[in-house]
Amino acid sequence: MAASATGNAPARPAGRARPAGPASRRFRPGRIVLVVVLAAVGLVMLFPALWVFTTAFAPQDEIANGALIPAALSLYNFHALLTQTPAQDPIVRWVINSIGVSAVTAIIVAFIDSMAAFALARLQFRGARFTFYLVTSSLMIPFIAVLLPLYLEFSKVGLLDTYAALILPYTANAFGVFLLFQFFRGIPQEIQDAAIADGASRFRIWRGIFLPLSAPVTVTLGLITFMNVYNDFFWPLVATNSPNMRTITVGIEIVAVGQYTTNYTALMALTVLSVIPMLIAFIFAQRRLVEGISFAGFQG
After folding, report:
1. How far separated are the first and last CA of the chain, in Å rounded?
2. Between the CA of residue 60 and those of 76, 83, 236, 253, what are the distances in Å?
3. 3-class SS at 257?
4. What values do phi and psi take at 72, rounded to 5?
5. Is the pTM of this model over 0.70?
């Protein structure tokens, strides 16, 4: 009664210790080993990129002597490529071709795959499931298996050595349909039912609802397509003949790789030039790329 009259607080029950904070945690030796291993792996992965960069800015004689890091760096290799290259090797035109073909293809793929995924995921028709399995099963077919029929087809219609030959083979792919299909399946059915009740057509539902909602995933698909088309070498080599229709990947082989010798400084300088457009595209689309991967993984 005296304790309650004086207003003293009851004593804290003993036997329960406070949880240790982050500062009191012991630094385990296993963490040190993990950090060292990860740092070593990172250096191994960065070594090829470092070698490409240093070789692109190095004189030819230092590379011939086996110098990994040149004593002096210069822009001579880039200046020689852009000013002293023969007229039959238009490097700037090759870069423009690669950027233009990759960008147009990425836009077309984003729209075609989005419409196909919407139809397979949200429209009710007979054979929808079978069609989806048939489309995704084409992922197991390597491109080399269809190279000859594709070449003969474009040859018969007279589209070889044109921009159409560089764009059309990539304009739809099963990977994009599968990626967007998983996302569209996760959108609540009530949204589509409300749009149908308001009298919206199927195309309007796709354009006004599903396409904006899937913007991060669609941008991710476009960026992946851009990088795949930009890096492709074999089909542009087969489908084009004239110098003005070549892409930068084929141009690297033409300029730097000879029958008996290889100009390593020119090879690495062209490689650095070819990486710049992809690096810029990745920097501007980085946020959308991360969002698209997160959304696609969550919905899948």
Report:
1. 64
2. 10, 17, 29, 18
3. strand
4. -135, 140
5. yes
Question: What would the pLDDT profile of 219-258 be if each residue is shown by its tens digit?
Answer: 888 888 998 999 999 999 999 998 889 999 898 888 877 6
In sequence order, which residues have a C-beta less than 8 Å from that of residue 71 and are 6 or more positions away? Answer: 62
Q: Which residue has the tokens 């075609």?
A: 112
Class of 91-299 per CATH?
mainly alpha
Which structure tokens are listed for 130?
């079978």
Map out the domains of the chain as residue ranges: 29-74, 91-299
d(CA 34, CA 73): 35
Q: How far apart are CA 21 and CA 79, in angstroms?
A: 58
Is the CB of residue 141 less than 8 Å from the CB of residue 75?
A: no
The pair of structure tokens assigned to 1 is 């009664």
- Residue 198 DSSP class: T
CA 77 to chain centre: 28
Tell me, what amino acid is at 41?
V
- The phi-psi region of residue 52 (left if phi > 0; otherwise alpha if psi is between -120 and 50; otherwise beta) is alpha
Phi/psi zone of residue 171: left (φ > 0), alpha (ψ -120 to 50 degrees), beta?
alpha
264-286: burial string, b at 16+ Cβ within 10 Å, e else:
bbbbbbbbbbbbebbeebeeebe
Rounded to whole angstroms, the Cα distance separating 205 from 219 reads 19
What does the pLDDT look like over 8-17, one tens digit per residue? 555 555 555 5
